[in-house]
Amino acid sequence: MSIQAHVEQVKQEIAKAAIAAGRKPEEITLCAATKVQSHETIRAAIQAGITVCGENRVQELVSHLEVDAYAGAQVHFIGHLQTNKVKQVVGKVALIQSVDSERLLQAIEAQAEKLGIVQDILLEVNIAGEESKGGCTVDEAESLATLCGTLDHVQLRGLMAIPPISSEPGANRPFFSAMRQLFVDIKGALGDNQSRMDCLSMGMSGDYRDAIQEGATLVRIGTALFGARPPVIKG
């Protein structure tokens, strides 16, 4: 199947899942996870109707930006972000989805202040408490959300999570449900006048339908769009 066909198929599946959940398909944003994809593949995906690309690695983000590979689409940073690489990301992407510590949050604030901009972010929550994954705890997320309200150059737009990998259908629904409740709780605690929280980023190729059922507003899809990732050649 062509990228065009894959994009159309995923959009149809998103629409089905949204309607089954009593939601409107347009409430769900499809973010193409472009990790290890070429400039040409990214351009083809955008030509096929992708409007948001999510990049995992700073080096690849910079490389694609240099040749304007994302032209016609928004770019989000969805991978682990080290504080020493913040300068390469802030102001270059519409949304940083993976903020998981006060140190990183303050580094983003400082760089955004230098640039005279407001950087939109999501807080990444390690909802299953997996030691091998990044993300803050639920309690830390609540504290970081409160801190965001005191910063002038960072705008909290919502939450992101990567639940455990599972081949069992529906296995991650409890985690998605917990994320949805945390989203509601944090937004309520911040208050309508302080909060622009409107993004709950969760669900990937294997479980995005369940994520939509549980309230995701953005799903990050790689394999279902591009096929299995090519091997990374280390030199």
Structure description:
It is a single chain. The chain is an alpha/beta fold and 235 residues long. The chain has a single domain, classed as TIM Barrel (Alpha-Beta Barrel). The protein is 38% helix and 17% strand. It is built from eight helices and eight strands; from the N terminus they run αβαβαββαβαβαβαβα. It has helices at 3-20, 39-47, 58-66, 102-115, 138-148, 173-190, 208-213, 223-226, and strands at 29-33, 52-55, 74-77, 95-99, 119-125, 154-161, 199-201, 218-221. Strands 7-6-5-4-3-2-1-8 form an eight-stranded parallel sheet. Helix 4 links the parallel strand 4 and strand 5 (119-125). It is globular and about 50 Å long. The two termini are 31 Å apart.
How would you summarize what this structure contains?
By secondary structure, this protein is α/β, with parallel strands linked by helices.
